[in-house]
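FAQ: What does the model actually see?

It sees only this:
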Amino acid sequence: MQRRSGIFFLAFTVATWVFGPGMFNQARAAEPDPLVAMFVWWNASYKDPEGFTAEAFGRYFTPDAVMRINGSDRSKGLADLAQHFRAIQARTQLVVIDLPFIDEFRSASGDQIFTHHFVRAREDGKDSRERVMGYATIRDGKIALLNFVSIPDNPAPSPLRTP
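And it is asked to produce this:
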């Protein structure tokens, strides 16, 4: 039994040296980053008339979070975010943030997440699609700033279906 322990220890040591400490971070890499986690929640909450509350946004955003779209601050703070998205929810029949993103990467410091994705929607029975690019600034594990550029990307590739 002592010999098996020694072989295991040797194999473990060699694996750590060859592959580096990154091999032990695989489980963490499988967890969504704060931006993806928020969009997964957002897609589900859009379907719930009571889903967009300041408390719910507080799980993903800092209390002073800013959402900036095309250079304009659309929302500041949790209550404003909830109100903004409840208004979108009320006037649309469907909104979906496409996941996985077309592209996503983190800054070297880890405090910014850059993304390129599509948002599909239906308003007044008309389907549309927006191409969105930009970044989220992360502070203490939550989104402090969304700074996106959004442009129409027509036509929408296929009709949206209400689940």
